[in-house]
Amino acid sequence: MPGSSTSGAAGTRKVAVVGIALSDCGRVDEATPYALHAQAARRALADSGLDREVVDGFASAGLGTLAPAEVAEYLGLRPSWVDSTAVGGSTWEVMAAHAADAIAAGHANAVLLVYGSTARADIKAGRRTSNLSFGARGPLQFEVPYGHTLISKYAMAARRHMHEYGTTLEQLASVAVQARANAAHNPDAMFRDPITVDDVLSGPVIADPFTKLHCCIRSDGGAAVLLAAEEYVRDCRTAPVWVLGTGEHVSHTTMSEWPDFTVSPAAVSGRLAFERAGVRPDEIDVAEIYDAFTYMTLVTLEDLGFCAKGEGGSFVEKGRLTLTGDLPVNTDGGGLSAQHPGMRGLFLLVEAVRQLRGDADERQVRRPGGRLPELAVASGTGGWFCSSGTVVLGRG
User: Fold this and answer.
1) Residue 116 dihedral angles phi and psi, to the nearest 5°
2) Confidence band of 140 (pLDDT split at 50, 70, 90)
3) Distance, CA of 83 to CA of 337 (rounded, Å)
4) CA separation for the pair 86, 73 (Å, rounded)
5) Model confidence over 345-376: pLDDT tens digits?
6) Hey, which of 167, 174, 310, 345 would disulfide with 380, CB 3.0 to 4.6 Å?
7) What digits encode the pLDDT tens for the residues 28-80?
8) Pfam families from the entry (predicted)?
């Protein structure tokens, strides 16, 4: 098998994903975020076939005053290794990297990553409102008075790419169209009806150049992933998916400190992950990429090395990202169509593992000759391209 199971630490044990699950997702009006955490965790443990006593590591972010202690207590866990790294949507790929290193080094045996959110239900019930900014303290105080919303920051970056490389609105819209085409094969996706480029372009403008369908949906839902050392694999219900290499990178917080709006931190995290895995981008069968906005998919594909800088627009055309395309991307429909309950990075890992295990049902990717995918990459993005975590996974 190519590469190493760690992100570069001096570990000796190989690390596998042995359990995955989603909680109920989409429109979940009655559950609490804690309940979604618990539901996903129970399902992931059941998927693995391991007893909960094996879990001695726990990682969670986004819920509770003392995460992950509060969530671990709710789940009845008493971990001896914890991680509460919070870097937005890339949190879970970064946590997976930390967990893999810890397991490889013998600091933990099995680490459970869990997330859950009722972002949609909370707004519908009036328990929260949409926030215009992440805060007005520290470096952010210098941007807040100018009205930069999170969406507008992504929109500015997209406009810069269009200016620099001639990327078109139609090319960006095709990302949403292909995500919806993939979602059509996912019975759990919130939106499955086909859309066209014209549908995307004619929608209400949210932040120029983004119309509504350029932007992710808002849903409820949770996910869980269990990583374990190689000696536990023989006791698992399902075939292991190995962590081959990981990378993480932090770029900026304020837009004025971002050197180039057309380069995301995945340019670093992806390079590190592929180098440590010992594989090339052109060997990857399936890519799960954070897609809060269409531009994120396009620029991340460039920065991971699937195409040259500036060629993302032409790369995403002609159905390349669909289940039968050259590089199936966001095979469940992604955050643009399937579900997006907030920090969606953990859902990327779940879908990548499903594809490699061959249990993605009607949306299962088949490569030339009908073979199952052998290599997948999950790349999460946090903030407004502030951070990135990339994980390369392999079947075998």
Assistant:
1) -160, 145
2) confident
3) 30
4) 19
5) 999 999 999 999 999 999 999 998 999 999 99
6) 345
7) 999 999 999 999 999 999 999 999 999 999 999 989 888 899 999 999 999 99
8) Thiolase_C_1 (PF22691)
Tokens at residue 271, please?
């390079």
Half-sphere exposure of 147 (CA within 13 A, CB side): 1
Task: Report helix, strand or coil for 145.
Answer: helix
Contacts of 115 (CB under 8 A, 6+ apart): 37, 40, 60, 61, 62, 92, 222, 223, 224, 341, 342, 343, 346
| 37 within 8 A of 115, measured Cβ to Cβ | yes
Dihedral (Cα; 100, 388, 328, 337), 10-degree rounding: 110
Look up residue 394 and give its amino acid: G
| Range list of β-strands (E), 64-105 | 81-83
Average pLDDT over residues 335-341: 97
pLDDT in tens, 90-133: 999 999 999 999 999 999 999 999 999 998 998 888 887 666 56
Cβ neighbours of residue 234 under 8 Å, at least 6 residues apart? none
Helix/strand/coil (H, E, C) string of 37-51?
A: HHHHHHHHHHHHCCC
Which three-class secondary structure string do you get for 348-377? HHHHHHHHHHCCCHHHCCCCHHHCCCCEEE
Angle at 345 between CA 343 and CA 349, to 5 degrees: 150
Tell me: pLDDT of 3 over 50.
Answer: no
Neighbours of 133 (CB within 10 A): 14
d(CA 94, CA 97): 5
CATH architecture of 15-125+215-395: 3-Layer(aba) Sandwich (3.40)
pLDDT of the residue at 7? 45
Q: Which amino acid is present at 215?
A: C
Span 178-196, average pLDDT = 98
Residue 288 sits at the vertex; the CA angle it makes with 176 and 243, to the nearest 5 degrees, is: 175
User: Environment class of residue 80 by beta-carbon count within 10 Å: exposed (0-12), middle (13-18) or buried (19+)?
Assistant: exposed
